[in-house]
Amino acid sequence: MSSNNNTTVSPGGLPSRRNTELLMLVFAVVIPVFAYANVGLAKDGTLPAGMLGYGLGLGLLAGVTHLAVRRWAPYADPLMLPLATLLNGLGLVLIWRLDQEPTITTDALGGPMAPNQLMWSTVGVALFIGVLLLLKDHRLLQRYTYISMVVALVLLALPIFVGKEINGARIWVQIPGVGSLQPGEFAKIVIAIFFAGYLMVKRDALALASRRFMGLYLPRGRDLGPILVIWAISLLILIFETDLGTSLLFFGIFVVMLYVATERTSWIVFGLLLSASGAVFVASTNAHVGERVDNWLNPLDRAANDGVTETAQAMFSFGSGGLFGSGLGQGYSRLISGIAPKSDYILATVGEELGLAGLMAIIMLYALLIERGMRTALAARDPFGKLLAIGLAGVFAIQVFVVAGGVTALIPLTGMTMPFLAQGGSSVIANWALIALLLRISDTARRPAPAPAPSLDSEMTQVVRP
Amino acid sequence: MNKPMRRVAVFCGLLMLALLVRVNYIQFVQADELQSHEDNRRVAIERYSNPRGDIIVDGEPITGSEETDDADFRYKRTWEDGEIWAPVTGYASQAFGTNQLEYVNDSILTGDDDRLFFNNTIDMITGKDQRGGDVITTLNGDAQRAAFEGLGDRKGAVVALDPRSGAILTMVSTPSYDPSSFAGYGAEDGEAWTALESDEDKPMLNRALRETYPPGSTFKVVTAAAALESGLIDDIDQDTEYEDPYILPDTDNVPLDNQVPGVCADANVREAMRYSCNSVFAGLSNDVGNEDMIEMAERFGFNEEHFVPVRSNASIYPEDNRPQNAMAGIGQASNRATPLQMAMVASAVANNGTLMSPYMVDQLVAPNLNVIEQHDPEELGEPVSGDNARELQEAMEEVVEANNIDRGSIDGDIRIGGKTGTAQRGENNSEPPYAWFISYAMTDEGSPVAVAVVVEDEEVDRNEISGSGLAAPIAMDVMAAVLADDQE
Known about the structure:
The complex is a heterodimer. Chain A is mainly α. Chain A is 65% helix and 5% strand.
């Protein structure tokens, strides 16, 4: 893969591409509005009443974010914002569409979710703008490396002490008056900042001070320490919070960043060995995780009480969607029951109502967003920015894979949400912040190098033209 | 750092590729399997999303569809007089599936049948919901009601056929059940189902098709047919040479008694039929032999299942030793018959020897009333020759006339042939017997109806000669109802 002009510093400056972004944003707003109309027409035969408000709201959010980017990150990547807006907009439509199903929108289940999701999206966008406005240079974050570590550990450990258990996983913290918070979603950003700062300092020590053994570079004991600590922590998360997803996310991202920082393949081998042994250990000792593994191996089997499992219901949703889907509003993903169709299993609704075609399009949107993140990492000029960008893009990629793979029974299901698409305030806020950070790094990377200062020496030797 | 980064990027690309492959697998390769999986509720939701087609008797639907306020299943099956018609229609329940006609013609009733494809396509283009087609039956509502009321609280079954075509006119089984009581899937439906399932009287058993009874003396018609067809006797007036009581062959002088003393020794078939002489028919069966008895029984339809189009259990005439074969000749050994089978015996005799294949679905019609399937009567065979059939008719008519069996409201100029039967059961006749009556009515234009009635009851009159008290009146009422409709 050859690096193209994005990765080189061109003194002439790159085009800012802000107008491209604006055009894409128009699509990113119009497509969900059409989807919204589609649901209304399919369910009631009329255009839904809230369509204008929804369209204006989404348009306003998109417009404000665009102006913020134009003002504070003019050279940022032009695709990431429209992709995030489109996914967020489609997510809102899907949640609103599922709100139309009375059986999964009872008061006991929290009633309609779309209005809240719109509010949380607004908060997310506000945080997005705040990051762009306040964080003029991502390298400032490097100063908070160890503070980040403490914050991340606190966030991760919080649910163990004050959390409540929902659906067998202890990953929520109840905040009176606000609702429940999933600290893991924020921790994933903070920990990427910590890793980037820590590895930037330690990378040489980790990479070079190692012994060669059987073709692999074995790290020194004291360098191995931090990895074992992270491994232990992710295992603890798994055991105490029974949250397979979050622990996989943290361990995965640490291995990826370590590998990028040190350029040593041996770290990946270590990482895989450690995570595999940890996973097997937990799966065989923890009933909740073990049950998830069983569901994954036999997704269509009945549950212990002879009921149809959520996994099976999700599989039926996907299968029933077929190639082109039933059309928005005309599927039966509500059969998954509970709040799961709006959160963990939102992709099942995509698969059933938009079909294989729609689901592949959604996956491609995520893939594109991840690719833009990776590209930002390649383009970044400073090691901290590179590590942070690869960390954020990597954490996003792993999350998408773990969630989508989980609901499609490619891998065991874990309790995480599809970024932007799924219902959940913490998730949408955290992911907007993640996109803001990537845009900040991208803006720095693509910003034209400052014009070289006029050199007196060179002036002296100029040829005097006639 | 760029080299490992590119590798990470490729790895992430592979993760996304894995997702794409996976969704292609489940939404394309596995889609059919998942769509039609038994646990996939969409199958049932789709099934009940439109009103189900109806089952028609005498031009009127005996079923219906009711719109419910259920979130999943929009329409529920209903029945007019479900207890009367349950043996014909079967049930169609959201929780417990379908059986009998509802099952056999399910695809027409739901509208999913391939032959309705054109209709469905037109409906789709014109924006109408898919509709189910109707099943037009051959049943006669008046006769069905007469049979149901006649059986009353007793256990039993009635089958009436049109001997000329094989069309089933009556099919009643009691005790019956109301399929409406568990058509949905709620708690009440479940309770109703469980109660019916655990009921000792087996209300959901279709006795007309699925229960085989010892045929008792009604089987003597088959034995007589075998004797005539095999040439053992030339006509029903030829005297036989069987003692009274008859000593069963290959036994240690085991005598077989007769109900009426002093009339059966060496009696001809006409007399033997009238007095239901066990000695004569056991002797005839013995002399015809097991092999030929089996052949005759099979020509009447024994030893095979019949599909009308609902499956009927096979009636049985087995290979057996000589004493058992002799006893089988009077219907008291291991030979067993469904009510449908005995109605077929009566109808073959009434139709001058030609047995028509029984059926109860005349037409399947599309929602727009186009006929998509028309049943043409088929011959199942000719168990007895026309001459022998007329001999048997004479003998059966003698039974009704000479024994003064009450003809009910049937006109005197209509000939009625019949044969009573009392099938004993239990060791030494300890349990109450089954009362049988098979009969036909004959007009100048042939026979429009043949009936078999069986009543399982405690109060059966053990003297079978007079027409069993219970079974014959029901048969007469059914025939009267058919004849009344026939004359209109």
